Amino acid sequence: MNTVETFTKKKSAKEKISMLTSYDFLMTKLIDKSVDAILVGDSLGMVMLGYEDTTRVSMEDMIHHIKAVSRGVEKSLLVGDMPFLSYHLGIKDSVLNAGRLVREGGCKAVKLEGGEEIKEHIKAIISAGIPVMGHLGYTPQSVNVFGGHKAQGRTIETAKKIIEDALILEESGVFAIVLECIPYDLADHISKQLKIPTIGIGSGSKCDGQILVTHDMLGLDEDFNPRHVKKYTNLSDIINKAILKYVNEVKHEDFPKEQNSYAMDGFNIEDLFYEES
Ligand code: KIV
User: Fold this and answer.
1) What share of the chain is helix, strand, coil (3-state, %, to 5)?
2) Ligand 1 surroundings by CB, under 6 angstroms
3) Is the pTM of this model over 0.85?
4) Are 22 and 28 within 8 A, CB to CB?
C-alpha cells in the first residue's frame, strides 16, 4: 500500500510519480493497478455532477464519492479534495471537515488549494494526523477571482508569489504540491527548490510527478479540449459507436440472440395451454 512516504522516496530516487483522478468504484479498480496515488478531485463537480465549476461541490458530494473510490483501492494512496468553503471558515472547521473526509470517506490524505493564507489551517490538519497535499498556480476554486481558466505565474510578481507560497507550504508540512497551469520553467525551478515532490498538471514535464483528470485523458468529453490535456484514447467515439450498434441491432432483432436468452426447462410454451385432463 502506498503512503505519503512513497512520495518522499520516489522524489529521492528521482522516480516520477503518476496520479489520476477517480470518482467511482469500477474506474478505481482499473486505475489502482497502475498509478501511485488516486485523487478524488472536486473536479467531480464537472465530471460527475454537470456543474460549471468546482464551487458548487459540497462536503456530502465529496464524502459520497470518496466512499465509493475507497472500496476500489488496493494499493494507491487515496487523496480527497477539500471542497470550496470547507477550510475557509476557521481552523476548527477545517480540521473537522478534513477529519470527515478521512473518517467517513476513507481517504488517507486531503488536498487544499492556496498558499500563505491557509498555512495555519494546514498545520492544524497535519497536527490532527492527516497528511496534506497543497495546490498552487491555477486553483479552480478561485475561478471567479481569476476570471476564468487561465494559466498563472506568467508575470514576475505572480511567479515570485507562487515560489514563496510553495516554500511556505513545504515549511507547513505538506507532503507534495500540485502545480496547475504554471509556466514549465517556473515549475522546474520550484521542483528543484523543494525537498517534497511537485505534481504537475499543465506545468511541463520537469515536475516530480503528473496528474490528469481521468475522464479527460480517456477522451470522454468530445467538447473539452484544453491545451494541457493529452487524450490517450477517444472513449467518447468508442462509446458512441457501441451505443449506435446496440440501437441498430435492437431495431433489427439482431440482439438479443439465442445465447443471450433463457430457454424453458423441459416444456414448451404450448404446454401451458393444452394440459392433459
Ligand atoms: O479536482 C481535481 O481533479 C484536481 C486535479 C486536476 C489536480 O484538483
Assistant:
1) 45, 15, 40
2) 21, 39, 41-43, 81, 178, 180, 201, 211, 213
3) yes
4) yes
Closest CA to 86 of 68, 104, 69: 104
Instruction: Give residue 277's pLDDT.
Output: 57
Which of 81, 107, 141, 207 best tests ligand 1's pocket when mutated (most atoms within 8 Å of CB)? 81
Radius of gyration of the chain (CA): 23
Report pLDDT digits (tens) over 112-156: 999 999 999 999 999 999 999 999 999 999 999 999 999 999 999
Atom from ligand 1 closest to the CA of residue 41: 1
Q: Report CA(225)–ligand 1 centroid distance (Å).
A: 16
Of 5, 60, 74, 180, which one is the catalytic site residue?
180
CA dist 210 and 16 (Å) reads 8
Q: Closest Cα to residue 179, out of 122, 134, 121?
A: 134
Are 80 and 132 spatial neighbours (Cβ–Cβ below 8 Å)?
A: no
Contact status, residue 106 vs residue 66, Cβ threshold 8 Å: yes
List the one residue out of 69, 72, 160, 87 whose CA is nearest residue 125.
87
Could you tell me the CA-to-CA distances from 151 to 67, 124, 145, 161, 262 in Å, in that order? 32, 30, 13, 14, 57
Instruction: Compute, in degrees rounded to 10, the torsion defined by CA atoms 8, 208, 187, 87.
Output: -50
Residue 180 appears among annotated catalytic residues: yes
For residue 153, what is its C-alpha cell? 505565474
Using H for helix, E for strand and C for coil, what is the string for 217-236?
HCCCCCCCCCCCCCCCCCHH
Are the C-beta atoms of 217 and 20 separated by less than 8 Å?
yes
Cell numbers linked to 244:
449506435
Pairwise CA distance, residues 83 & 85, whole Å: 6
